[in-house]
């Protein structure tokens, strides 16, 4: 398949240099707003021609969710592969991020955590893994705007085996704190002022700075912004770039390095089903800022 033929939201690329192949994961249900069937993956060696789809996760009959299977991210760690993914719970109707694991990049991924690792009372989504310089794993995630109005980006320490929390959530910032965001006009939440947070992803630049990608809206168009940690640590404080990195109705991005060491951003655009497709954009770091080429 060509890139433009792949319907996917929240794309995540795992490069495996020992194979010379890129693995593409994401929200792959044809209608991700309804019942969830699982996650598929695609494989490429040039980011343009892709093999797949390969089923990498299908829920068992006793899985705690059957709706809204979102934003899988896959990491190679401890000689295994770990997937962080969002699901809507049957028991309370709230979103939460769980950890799954597999011996290989194509699964099958099986539950690793006992249900969501995000707080049970919160509606939380888009959990992402980041290892601090001491080797402590953190999950960065969103406290959903539909529950709190002004969406929050939060961080929480995880146990060394990634199976459970190792601390309480810390709020890093709220969506309205960024200079580029505007209120989201939702037909379901007309009586409140809403600011969206989606898809946080942390990465280190060549300079050693720690950056965060995260998505929100500008005049009801999906957009992607960047923040930089003033201390280099997960807890920040976080300094927002004044302008969005991408504002053409696309977002929920992540950054990876190609096999020839180029820094590449992937995101989905446009932000409407069933037209969403993965985009790959070269980016660069300059004087503490991220920009795309």
Automatic annotation (TrEMBL):
Biological process according to GO: carbohydrate metabolic process
Family assignment from sequence similarity: Belongs to the glycosyl hydrolase 43 family.
GO molecular function: hydrolase activity, hydrolyzing O-glycosyl compounds
Organism: Paenibacillus rhizosphaerae
SUPFAM superfamilies noted in UniProt: Arabinanase/levansucrase/invertase
UniProt-listed Pfam families: Glyco_hydro_43
Pathway: Glycan metabolism; L-arabinan degradation
Swiss-Prot/TrEMBL site (Important for catalytic activity, responsible for pKa modulation of the active site Glu and correct orientation of both the proton donor and substrate) positions: 126
Tree of life domain: Bacteria
UniProt entry tagged with the keyword RNA-binding: no
Protein's recorded name: Glycoside hydrolase
CDD domains referenced in this protein's UniProt entry, alphabetically: GH43_Bt1873-like
Keyword Hydrolase on entry: yes
The entry's keywords: Glycosidase, Hydrolase
């Amino acid at each position: 398949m060509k890139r433009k033929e792949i319907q996917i939201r929240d794309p995540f690329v795992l490069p495996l240099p020992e194979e010379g192949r890129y693995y593409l994961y994401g929200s792959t249900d044809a209608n991700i707003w309804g019942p969830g069937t699982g996650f598929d993956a695609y494989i490429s060696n040039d980011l343009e021609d892709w093999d797949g789809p390969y089923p990498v996760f299908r829920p068992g009959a006793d899985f705690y969710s059957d709706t809204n299977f979102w934003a899988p991210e896959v990491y190679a760690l401890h000689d295994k592969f770990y997937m962080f993914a969002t699901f809507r719970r049957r028991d309370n109707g709230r979103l939460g991020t769980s950890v799954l694991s597999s011996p290989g990049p194509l699964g099958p991924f099986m539950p690793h955590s006992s249900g969501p690792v995000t707080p049970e009372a919160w509606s939380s989504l888009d959990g992402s893994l980041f290892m601090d310089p001491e080797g402590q794993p953190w999950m960065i995630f969103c406290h959903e705007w539909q529950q709190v109005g002004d969406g929050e980006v939060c961080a929480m320490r995880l146990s060394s085996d990634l199976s459970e929390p190792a601390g309480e959530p810390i709020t890093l910032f709220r969506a309205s704190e960024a200079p580029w965001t505007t209120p989201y006009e939702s037909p379901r939440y007309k009586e409140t002022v809403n600011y969206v947070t989606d898809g946080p992803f942390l990465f280190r630049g060549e300079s050693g700075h720690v950056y965060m990608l995260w998505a929100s809206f500008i005049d009801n168009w999906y957009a992607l912004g960047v923040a930089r940690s003033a201390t280099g640590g997960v807890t920040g404080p976080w300094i927002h770039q004044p302008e969005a990195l991408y504002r053409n109705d696309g977002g929920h991005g992540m950054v990876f390095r190609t096999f020839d060491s180029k820094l590449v951003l992937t995101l989905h655009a446009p932000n409407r089903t069933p037209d969403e497709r993965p985009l790959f954009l070269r980016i660069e770091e300059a004087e503490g800022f991220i920009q795309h080429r």
